[in-house]
Amino acid sequence: MRKPIQRLFQQWKKSHPSEIDGHFEREHDRAFEQTDCLECANCCRTTSPIFKERDIVRIAKHLQMSVGHFSSKYLKRDEEGDWVLQWAPCPFLELETNACTIYAERPQACRDFPHTDRKNMHQILRITEQNTHLCPAVSKMLQSILAEVND
Ligand code: SF4
Ligand code: SF4
Fold first, then answer.
1. How far, in Å, is the centroid of ligand 1 from the Cα of 66?
2. Residue nearest to atom 1 of ligand 1 (CA)
């Protein structure tokens, strides 16, 4: 599916951003209605969310840890200087059930993943293409969009 998606994204360079957003608005909810994240957890197993300062403060408080202790135990800076997990799978993932043990307090980036429910999708098409290989829901969205535009 890589080549058709790349061709589509190439065509979208001439499209208005709202047209691209419209495709994802139509497909995001539908894809997640057909996808059970508890049977997947690929994102939690293989990648790290970015932890913003407010995420760190909230989660450290929830775990009754100091911010410093939480950061040194779980986090590191990536090449862009963002706080990310030191290892994967995420230490807050319950591996047997795929449940997030800090679900109510999870980072904003976990709530937003795979970032297909937002405006200005044209700004993140490269990462969205990469996410088709990681996230079955994104893969479903792109399959449906490709079927629609090629109809
Ligand atoms: S990779 Fe996608 S489908 Fe799988 S758990 Fe994450 S958001 Fe859900
Ligand atoms: S904090 Fe929770 S939702 Fe986020 S990566 Fe870890 S297990 Fe997944």
1. 30
2. 135
For 38-141, where are the E strands, in sequence order? Answer: 75-77, 83-85, 93-94, 99-100
From ligand 2's centre to the CA of 47, what distance in Å? Answer: 10
The domain ranges of the chain are 2-42+114-149, 50-105
Q: Using alpha carbons only, what angle is made at residue 145 by residues 37 and 108, rounded to the nearest 5 degrees?
A: 40
Q: Is the pLDDT of residue 150 over 90?
A: no
Q: Which ligand is nearest to the CA of 43?
A: 1
What's 88's DSSP letter? S
Q: What is the pTM of this model?
A: 0.94
Say if CB 125 and CB 131 are below 8 A apart: no
Q: Which ligand is nearest to the CA of 44?
A: 2
Ligand 2 geometric centre to CA of 38 (Å)? 12
Contact 74, 85 (CB under 8 A): yes
Question: Packing angle between helix 17-33 and helix 136-149, nearest 10 degrees?
Answer: 130
Element (H, E) at 133: none
